[in-house]
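This is your field. Have a critical look at both lines of this record:
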Amino acid sequence: MKYQFGNKDLFSILCAAVVLTFSANSFAAVDADAAKLLARENSCFKCHGIEKPKDGPAYTAVAAKYRGKADAEAKLIHHITSGEMAKFPDGHQEAHKNIKGKASPEEIKNLVDWILSL
């Protein structure tokens, strides 16, 4: 007996392929070395430590704050690219320095994903 695929079968296979493609991209490995290099090039470590706070919060604290929040990546990307106000421990506020324009959206996403992975 020979099985013939119908339109419904082909649609199901196509949907599964699309889901697998996007799932694989969503869970792509973070390039920690590239993220740290971008952070160094943009003087991020001047205000942020990985595990210890400086003028800004430690990246591990940022990751803890946003853990489990669906909009975490979008919020952090906006924060590091928009110049929105950053609050300092002494209460004053300054515009957060932007990641330099030469960084690609993929590099910025990788940096944010690295921070959120800590």
Q: What stands out?
A: The two ends are 54 Å apart (CA to CA). The chain has one domain: 31-117. Residues 86 and 92 are 9 Å apart (CA to CA). The domain at 31-117 is CATH 1.10.760.10 (Cytochrome Bc1 Complex; Chain D, domain 2).
